[in-house]
Amino acid sequence: MFHSLRYKYKMDPERISEFLMNHWIISAAWVLVVAMLSQNLLELATRKYKPVSTVGAVNLINTRDPVILDVREAFDYTKGHIQDSINIPAAKLDKRMSELDTFKDKLLIVTCQTGTRSTTACKKLKAAGFSEIMHLSGGIQAWEDQKLPLARKKSKKKSEKKLAKKTNTPSV
To answer: Which of 49, 107, 128, 159 could be disulfide-bonded to 66 (CB atoms 3.0-4.6 Å)?
Structure first.
């Protein structure tokens, strides 16, 4: 029975091209989806930074004392952030990269609100020569979902003093 079905539904190039011509929208969508999945898999395989879960980040914070870089805007940062994190908004990262130069050989965990902007920041940091970079999967939103603590309403002056303390330079 199966032997006869195989020959009954034989795929010849003429029928395939006819299907593609009659259903070009579906065919184009299929090609697009395959291309996007391939690009995503290629990027995952070749990227130089690693994702870290909230539990993994807590473990790293407790054992390795990483530098935590929050790339959200200052307004979002003051609503709640990981304690002792440094806030440099993603849009200003290129201009303020030199502030992080002393941390090039330290573990750097990058976070944003949902984990999307942090991956772009990780690419920039890797290109700038940072050796060990991780991004927080799910960002601050995942951190909050796990009911992990957030520091709130930290003034810009305190953030600058903390950065100066970590870099051993006088604050403004």
So the answer is: 107
